[in-house]
Amino acid sequence: MEPALAPGQCSTGTADHVCTGTNRPDGPGANQPCYDTVAQAASGYLDLTLNPGNPRVCGPAVADSITGMYAAYGILGALHERQRTGRGRLVEVAMVGAMAHFNIDAFTHYYGDGELMTPYSRPGASQAHVLTCKDGKRVALHMSSPLKFWENLVRATGHMELLDDPRFKQRGERIRNHGEVIRVLDGYFKEYDRSEWCIRLKEQDVPHSPVYDASEALNDPQALHMQLRQAAERPGRGIFTAVRNPVIYDRSPPARLVPPPELDEHRSELLAGLKY
């Protein structure tokens, strides 16, 4: 497999080969360089993650990871065919194509209903909120469509009058008044610390989570139970800590974390396997 290369730089001398890059090696954009943010922007994805009031690029390198995932399942398809027919495939994955497919919900709305989604379209329809608590920490909620989750949230706040508020009584009104829902709830959430809200929300079966940063997330009791954080010794370099692979197969223990190899660490074994 080759890294994310400019179009036309893929080697094609082998039938068992993968190339990730910006685009197919032809077309009007074939010679343009591409990085994560460029792919996000060209695919329409970035438009849905920018704060309209402060349009700055936020968050991790999504396009790099998504393209790698599409490449991985492309490889699996090619390996299956090679096992079935004896012939391999050249697998090409363009970053822009990967991100456009990942962003398919926006195109479904546009081509199906003529609706151009905004950064707040999906959160409004799914009734997703981030609320700040008394201690300055945040909680994320996702009410989705079942009425019970809205009713349970109201019970958790203790402000039962919200059930009869005409702005919020029907799901359609809550979607149209999404900003007002957040404004009202944000005021209530200032009444207690995050730990208290998590107790209240759990008691009422409200879909929620603390908004963790990287120093907190892997210390959550569920994350600890899942053994998401793993560590391994790197000779001469100390402890290497990372997140384990999330895929678990039955009849097999979770994969053991192995530190990344040193430069040329496995050179002799690889060359021997290639009969060099």
What are the key terms here?
formyl-coa transferase, domain 3, 8 strands, alpha/beta, Rossmann fold, 14% strand, three-stranded parallel β-sheet, globular, 276 residues, 3 domains
What do you see in this structure?
The chain has 276 residues and is α/β, with parallel strands linked by helices. The protein has three domains: 2-113, Rossmann fold, CATH 3.40.50.10540; 121-211, formyl-coa transferase, domain 3; 224-273, no CATH class. 38% of the residues lie in helices and 14% in strands. It has eleven helices and eight strands. The chain has helices spanning 36-42, 62-85, 95-102, 104-113, 121-126, 147-157, 171-176, 178-189, 194-203, 221-225, 267-273; strands spanning 2-5, 17-21, 90-94, 128-132, 138-142, 208-210, 229-234, 238-243. A three-stranded parallel beta sheet has the order 1-2-3. A three-stranded antiparallel beta sheet has the order 4-5-6. A two-stranded antiparallel ribbon has the order 7-8. β4 (128-132) and β5 (138-142) form a beta hairpin. α1 (36-42) packs across α3 and α6 (147-157) packs across α9. The chain is globular, with a radius of gyration of 24 Å. The protein starts with a strand and ends with a helix.
